[in-house]
Amino acid sequence: MSDTDSAHRHLVDNIFGLYTKIKAGSLLSEGLQRRLLILSLLIAYLDERNALEAEYFAQFHSGARTFADVMRAGKPVVRLLAALEKRFNGHVFELDDDLRTELVESTQLAAFADLIEGLHDTHGQGSFWRLYSFRDLPVELISNIYQLFVEDKDSSIYTPPALVRLMLDEALSWERIDRLIERDEVILDPACGSAVYLVEAYKRLVLHWRMRNAWARPKVKDLKALLTRVHGIDLEPGAIKLAAFSLCLALCEALEPEHIRKSVRLFPELEGATLHPSCFFAAREQGLIAKRVGVIIGNPPFKSSLSTPGAVRAAKAFRQNLAEKLPNDQLAYLFLVSAQDMLTDGGVISMIQPAGLLYNLNSKGLRRHIFGKWDVREILDFVSVRGLFSKGGGDTQIVVVVALAGEPEGTRKILHAIFRRSGKADAEQSFDIDYYDMHWIARGEDLADYRTWRAGLLGTQRVVDLVRRLAEMRTLGTFAQVKGWERGQGFMRGNRIHKNSHDHIWGKPMMPPDAIGPHGINSAKVKTAPRVPISDVRSERAFQAPLLLVRKQENLDQGFWDKGYMTFADEIVGFSGDDSDTPDLLAVSDFISMNRNCLSAYAAATSFRLFNKKATATSTGDIFDLPFPESGDLGLSASEAILVHDIVAYQRDLIRRGDQSVALKSSGQAVLPAFNETFLAAINHLYRDNPLVAHPSQSWPGIICQPYSFGAVEIDWSDSETLRGRVDALIREQRSESVSVTRIARIYDDNLLFLIKPDRLRFWMRSIGLRDADEVLADLRAQGY
Questions:
Q1: 187: which strand partners?
Q2: How many whole angstroms separate alpha carbon 638 and alpha carbon 678?
Q3: How far apart are CA 595 and CA 226, in angstroms?
Q4: H or E stretch including 417?
Q5: How far apart are CA 330 and CA 339, in angstroms?
Q6: Which end of the chain is less packed: N or C, by CB atoms within 10 Å?
Q7: How many angstroms separate the CA atoms of 288 and 276, rounded?
Q8: 571-585 pLDDT per residue, tens
Q9: Residue range 202-233, pLDDT digits in tens
Q10: Separation CA 143–CA 200 (nearest Å)
Q11: Alpha helices, DSSP H only, in 26-66?
């Protein structure tokens, strides 16, 4: 951690410590706590930026040399705020009468003064030097303060700054800002919170102004004009005040200290003008945003509740327009659909959504509407980045939708970009993506089918064809239903409110999940069911032998049990039949054993719970939906068998662990022969008369070059070391502050082909060889070869 990061961390910790201390002691009203916290930070910032004159604070409290000296008594603080409001305007330093009266009478401000001094940590431990500075207040700090202010913490989640920057990279290019200015459009965040998106957008507007004006520094009037182009709405009044603070701070950051000192009435009145304390849906109905909206960006609340009358009305309109109910009453979906309608023609929206938008079965109608009616350009997929919102106390899986207002262009493909977990992502610094994580989806595909998108997570669009073929087969659930078997998950533990007796479970033999492994059931691990509360009971018949027991886990461990009554909990799915059903139950068990890899790959490609909800857990529905054809043969082709192997061996692990996975920690040198065999077989299926042949590979640190040729050829590598720097630059690109891209190169030189890629196993898997072959064949056709 850098010194700057450490200082910021100290500041954030001290703010949380102050807030906890004040809340615990009930020293001040919550409204005054919040207002003083915001104002203290802003005044300390102005002071340390030298925007206030020397000895400025002495006029408010006798002998005061610093802001912290003034902050120790209520009356001097009131006088200071009045002077600053008169000087800077914008109602930024204003207090209402009740808060002013409370502040005048308060003698409990020492904690605020200590925060400003910065000489004590959260435990009260003193230091000889300041632990932090207010000169540069990071946007992360404001987002952390927002978490203290909001009342509904479940739906208001801290957004990592790297994600904010990435979303604005995609939505607010220089050309987009040119259009914004030319057409007099504005940027809107419909759930602005602390204005983290609006502040970043404003900074880009300022930078764009400078670039278009020979890098001159904008004057106050220019900065104020740019500030009118960022608009926000939020239901929380405290959030609107914090948003105003954030934007005023951004305005100050664009000015030199002497310009701040000389300015009169520097801060514009934002609340009620560009920042609106309102329900977004009501604001939309009332036309609160009068300007044309050219860009919409943000992170709406993830909440399965229509919590305002405006939301209820919007959900009703959703049902009328789409002829179906809003999935799960998910507020974030409603924000997306409603916000899109506010865009001017050709405007762009970049909005975070729950991953269920892509991957939930019950969101199919919504997907059909979005991809059928909107010009969707990109889906940025962060399902693999676990803990992205952990600083806000959540582990929410998300995607980002980037779309233009207008009819979709039939020939333009949609980018499905999948970001993997990495050290930089965990540290909230930036994101990594590589060539094989970018999938261009044709609009002719069934974009409402969640399997279209799931295939990208597993490495190649070939997975879609495999899954759709297997999905046409009879399922295990259908077979069990026809047989009349009792089927379903086991009992579910409850809590103290579940007081009924369950003698058909308590004290009976119980199969724990870990008793079922790759080789069947280990009867030595059978336990006795404890006397615990049970919420979802299951009937006595569900536990009668003979039983087929399948563990709800990605590897589909299972076993047959015929040694008497056996209870099991909800981590296991059971199929119970009569004694005469024993042959069929055994046949199913044998089928799962023989086809476990293929069935596990199918579950990985179709399960919403796996990866999205639980890292390795499947659902009861996933078990029921496993293909079980009448022939007993899944009929895998050679290429399908390769896909299955790589999904089970590498892709599942890659989704969960990113740069710590086997695929990215292991070298690809050992698998090159298998890669070449797969790649050449796919190419030479069409070029039998003049087949492509592989030559010995050439490598540099971190990079492999695999050459091929049509016909015999000698390759001279004598100057290979001189290529090292150029090859590295070819493969790795820092696209922006927020994202780095790992590329591959296919170089065609007469009858030669060079594949240049990173040396990690991930780039040389056999399934990647199939994708490479598909793309090389397309290149060769385009060249008329």
A1: 230, 295
A2: 10
A3: 62
A4: strand 414-418
A5: 15
A6: N
A7: 8
A8: 999 999 999 999 999
A9: 999 999 999 999 999 999 999 999 999 999 99
A10: 12
A11: 30-48
